[in-house]
């Protein structure tokens, strides 16, 4: 799956928590959201009241992609053979992200799952 195809797939399945997501779909999405957040963060030099434009834009962006990010995470966990409840590892600072990165890096466990 290419970068563009992965982004289109995640946006098309915006709030779909059922089904599966291959590793490329998940990791391309994570890269995309990180790149957009970084690009919007460049606007931190423009003050807007007590905040900066960058913080405001990044906050709006992260709010906009929260649901699709959680949806692709749940689909990826399911594809790797884990339950959706493992998404709660996000609540554990640092270690939770490491645990989820390991879980999401696993190959598909579902027979007939998406191609890697």
Automatic annotation (TrEMBL):
<dbReference type="Pfam" id="PF05656">
    <property type="entry name" value="DUF805"/>
</dbReference>
<keyword id="KW-1133">Transmembrane helix</keyword>
<dbReference type="InterPro" id="IPR008523">
    <property type="entry name" value="DUF805"/>
</dbReference>
<feature type="transmembrane region" description="Helical">
    <location>
        <begin position="86"/>
        <end position="104"/>
    </location>
</feature>
<keyword id="KW-0472">Membrane</keyword>
<feature type="transmembrane region" description="Helical">
    <location>
        <begin position="53"/>
        <end position="74"/>
    </location>
</feature>
<protein>
    <recommendedName>
        <fullName>DUF805 domain-containing protein</fullName>
    </recommendedName>
</protein>
<keyword id="KW-0812">Transmembrane</keyword>
<feature type="transmembrane region" description="Helical">
    <location>
        <begin position="26"/>
        <end position="46"/>
    </location>
</feature>
């Amino acid at each position: 799956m290419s970068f563009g195809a992965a982004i289109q797939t995640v946006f098309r399945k915006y709030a779909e928590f059922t089904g599966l997501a291959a590793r490329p779909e998940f990791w391309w999405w994570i890269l995309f959201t990180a790149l957009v957040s970084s690009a919007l963060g460049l606007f931190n030099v423009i003050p807007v009241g007590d905040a900066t434009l960058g913080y405001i834009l990044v906050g709006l962006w992260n709010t906009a992609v929260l649901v699709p990010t959680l949806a692709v995470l749940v689909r990826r966990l399911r594809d790797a053979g884990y339950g959706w409840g493992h998404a709660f590892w996000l609540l554990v600072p640092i270690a939770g992200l490491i645990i989820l990165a390991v879980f999401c890096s696993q190959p598909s466990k579902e027979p007939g799952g998406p191609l890697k």
